[in-house]
């Protein structure tokens, strides 16, 4: 087979325009497919970290935007298997010019006494932890956010509320390291409560609770117990693992999973059909050469190998180009502002496995789409093949 | 008595497709000995190409016997036939049939790729064959950069590069002008005389037939006895 390589390569690139178009369409579809596989892996396959595996999110069953009463907190704390609970309040608001996507980092009102117990992966010097507990208007930010917006300890951050009719004047008292490299800001929920008007119903509710279970095995049981606890109240809850929550949070933003699948799938499939058709056309056109090779003594098996090899060359080149583009797109998505909603996207990339998978798909397209014409060509009788004027 | 290279007995070829049924060869008995250069002549549709294809085992007979270089072609498998043809037969077409993406020397090297020769040896053989046909200075030209006569000489180089016992040519000068035809015929004649190759050449052209050592005529699928020409045989005007 090896000695046919030069023939295979020369043949596969002979019709330059068509080869480029075929390679191009395979590259485009493989680029889309590569990003799709990478996204799928990052979002739905990524293993939860050790700390994450312990955490659950409890929120209003109706929707994330519906609050639940703060007094649920103590009831949750008493449920067996619950190690710690923290109120967790999404605070939208505006920081400086909201048109700059860098200014759109997420901010949450939390309980300083619990934040670092529940999120054991956050690393912060003890004196900064203490400062966060003691200063009501203090806030802590992730290293990634500090680096991006050049925040230092002692800096002031003003957040103008939108969901909440308040303006928060925060002071950076801590910068923590965490593994997923997200932009995020935590402030004291108590400060928000006090800033709200005395008669505001928002004072006694919270968006969600972050629960830490005793062990990963307790997570499903705790989720069930929590939801059962509040079943009879007007505020039914939905508790799930943090990983599942992140996904449903995305579902809340728009059914992303289905979106990815449907759009990308359809586009890919269409392009595959087109490139498959082109490949099989080019095989049929050259049936006469098959007759020549057979006259020289090439066996049907050798011919099958040569024709399949040609399609494989084209599709592997297309696949490799597609993977390169996919890698570029992944890094763009990973650095886009949208990724702050989903730390998993930060890890988006064409890993060797995803790359191999994509190249495998490309190879399969090439071989599958050319197999039937290649098989027919290898079985055509010499005289019939020679009579073919293509 | 020279060694027999080709021997057929009552060779029969019919083409049957749907309702129509053509007898292309009827009871052909022909014997060709080593070192002969036979011109196979006859009107269009008389079965010349069909006979040549059966000798090259590019098609299978419908009846009768065919022995080429001692092999009973009817009993060989397709795979065995492919190897046999690569080793023993050089075929030259009217329309050259070079692979357009390969240079002259690569086209000539092609049949050697099926042998055990190393790349270097293959190239040496291919270059020798091209030198022999007088195209040593055109090794790296693509077929489209060559004239028709040169293309046909490359095709002949490809046919002889494996040093086959038998060269079969189907109207090798049919697509060529008079000068190029003359070159090709001289070349074939040299291969016959100097290298002792057995050649069977189909041709319409009596002038071309002069280069052969012997002419045989086919008519409506039947081989006329040696020395006999069709009754209405008139020497066609030279183009
Ligand atoms: N594949 C085929 N199917 C049906 N009939 C065929 C086939 N090949 C050849 N024939 C018929 O067999 C007969 C002999 O054909 P062949 O090609 O051998 O003639 P030829 O002597 O080479 O003619 P020409 O000088 O025109 O090349 C013709 O009647 C032809 O129509
Ligand atoms: Mg013919």
Topology:
The complex is a heterodimer of chains A (390) and B (239).
Chain A: H1 5-12, H2 16-45, E1 55-60, E2 68-69, H3 72-77, E3 82-90, E4 107-110, H4 112-118, H5 126-134, E5 138-142, H6 143-149, E6 156-160, E7 167-176, E8 185-188, H7 189-195, E9 205-206, E10 208-213, H8 219-229, E11 237-241, H9 242-253, H10 256-285, H11 287-295, H12 300-334, H13 343-346, H14 352-379, H15 382-387
Parallel strand pairs in A: 4-8, 5-7
Antiparallel strand pairs in A: 1-10, 1-11, 2-9, 3-4, 3-10, 5-8, 6-7
Chain B: E1 4-17, E2 20-28, E3 31-33, E4 37-41, H1 48-55, E5 63-68, E6 71-72, H2 78-88, E7 89-92, H3 104-109, H4 119-132, H5 148-160, E8 166-170, H6 178-195, E9 198-202, H7 206-209, E10 214-219, E11 222-223
Parallel strand pairs in B: 4-9, 4-10, 7-8, 8-9
Antiparallel strand pairs in B: 1-2, 1-3, 1-5, 5-6, 10-11
Helix pairs in contact in B: 4-5, 5-6
The complex binds adenosine-5'-triphosphate and magnesium ion.
